[in-house]
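*** Backbone structure tokens ***
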Amino acid sequence: MHGRIFDVKCTECGNVEFDRSSPICEALRGTEELVEQNVIDPEIGLDQLPKCKKCGGLARPGVVWFEEMPLHLDLIDELVEKADLCIVVGTSSTVYPAAGYASAVRNNGGKVAVFNLERSAGDHRADFLFLGPCEELLPRALSLAS
């Protein structure tokens, strides 16, 4: 729905390639340190940013940004219709269409488990509510950790 951070998408031709390089280009090396120093918007020239390997256009992360249409909505709707369990992890449950999936699963007879640090707008849809660090609670609930 929101894409994959390791997909690199061309802003010109739309080509998408999987790339786990870190950093994705040399100009972005060390930007984590700049953020820690409160240099939020470092000056990086367009010619130094990632380029599409197919056409040379400017490349970006293959994720959905605000006001962009989520991906694979038809497939997600099909899966939600069939689901007997919806696991909601780390969200305020206020942004649609995703915020409506728990209700849809519940309306179809399924159960809803919510994992969040604190209470959220979607708690009333939960059959199971787990409050605390998701990285600890989720593995325990799924019997993946003791």
Summary: The longest strand covers residues 3-10. Strands lie at 3-10, 16-18, 59-63, 85-89, 111-116, 128-131.
